[in-house]
């Protein structure tokens, strides 16, 4: 089944916003979509309705019950830290092989397309040896790289792109998710990055806006 991995140049840049928007566009086309947020930190079980996996479930048209959240996000940690730190704090280390296996099984069992949302940035560690990048490499599925438009994002985007390219990953698209209040115009960032991304589509979003339908449709076009 086709699958896509949504990762980012860092945390709090809108990966869930992008994943939910893509899911909505795919569903409007009549696609059957499954979604995963395998690892999440900063998870509050008493406020789970606002969590990232809950937002993905809502995009899927499903009730974000505790059972449903656990099914798509089995590694949940309370501390708002990197997953290796959050897991260590709870003395529940992440079994990387099990994480890879969980994602592979979901992809194999899916009726149609699977959207997987990562945690933090591309190089966030799960343990002392494995990162989000290692997970994507193990799954061998295309990525959508999400970035903000803050001052300094050019270096972060190009660094993440270089690392992904060196691992032989397939970048389906770069999404520039507008950073509110940024002194740098999104058009200028788009123009600069066009010089480095060749044929990789660069899609821009107005963060938090409801007027991003065309951009999400363009992302949906990328999935076979």
Write the layout of secondary structure elements.
Layout: E1 3-8, H1 15-28, E2 33-36, E3 39-40, H2 52-59, H3 66-72, E4 75-76, H4 83-89, H5 96-109, E5 113-117, H6 132-139, E6 143-147, H7 153-166, E7 171-177, H8 186-197, E8 202-205, H9 213-220
Parallel strand pairs: 1-5, 1-6, 2-5, 3-4, 6-7, 7-8
Helix pairs in contact: 1-2, 1-9, 7-8
Structure in words:
The chain is α/β, with parallel strands linked by helices and 224 residues long. It is built from 9 helices and 8 strands. The protein has helices at 15-28, 52-59, 66-72, 83-89, 96-109, 132-139, 153-166, 186-197, 213-220; strands at residues 3-8, 33-36, 39-40, 75-76, 113-117, 143-147, 171-177, 202-205.
The arrangement of helices and strands along the chain is: EHEEHHEHHEHEHEHEH
Largest sheet: 6 strands, parallel
Helix content: 40-55%
| Low-pLDDT segments, ≥5 res | none
Short characterization:
With 224 residues, the protein is an alpha/beta fold.
